[in-house]
Amino acid sequence: MFFDTKGIRLAYDDQGTGLPLVFLHAFPLNRSMWTPQTTALSRQFRTIAMDLRGHGESDAPLWNFSLEQYADDVLALLDHLAIPQAVLVGLSMGGYISLAFSRKYGSRLKGLVLADTRAQADSPEGRTGRFNLAQTAYGKGADAVADIMLSKLLGATSLQQKPELVDSIRHTIRNTPVSGIVVDLMAMADRPDSVAHLRTLACPTLVVVGQEDHTTPLADAHVMATGIPGARLAVIPAAGHLSNLEQPEVFNDLVRTFVEELRAAGD
Ligand code: MLT
């Protein structure tokens, strides 16, 4: 399905009924990374997965340089679907966007799942790395980005044992517009530090991290889990940065339990 916000067309899937869960994907992927979650969890909940601008079937405008714009797009989707409150499930860049959303639109949050992400801003080296990768994308295309990103996205276990997953991630990255890749990198490089913001988060929060995640490792998950009042931390063995794809059943069980408890607390 598609909806329009300020002249930009964005794609999303909407399945199931009940408490809405909105899934926000990682860089440089699209909503298809959430298929194992939306397939399983839409039996109990309403699952909505969107392609962020510049990804998948959404438009790829060139003038977006801030993660707040993506948060505004999430709000526009909630308004379009007349959803007053939702649980945001954000992985990596999706987690950065969830934090941006919580800063601007906290009253629209029923709960948060922050997976394989971090609250800190980029270090100066991290920013330089993003500009270098943007230059590579611009000069050599998305194939070169796929070659660089695969070992950052997948853990050692998946790289060794899951060749189909490796191929499917490579395929997704190769098909991501270069403009989407470059714009994401600029927006991520520019994001503010959210560590002080964590203690102001009022909604129930689950922090998830793959044990083999070297991109946003366990130490980053600890910063969020200790900073957010009442947050819970779950570590997924034999998973890297894309923990939802590397160990989908474990990831689904964690989200299911968290949302069932949320729902029970609200009854
Ligand atoms: C992601 O998976 O969204 C990115 O790796 C995040 C990042 O580069 O910080």
Automatic annotation (TrEMBL):
Its EC number is 3.1.1.24. Pfam families: Abhydrolase_1. This is Putative 3-oxoadipate enol-lactonase. GO terms for molecular function: 3-oxoadipate enol-lactonase activity. InterPro entries: AB_hydrolase_1, AB_hydrolase_fold, AB_hydrolase_sf. It comes from the Bacteria. Keywords: Hydrolase. Residues 20-247 form the AB hydrolase-1 domain. Transmembrane segments: none annotated.
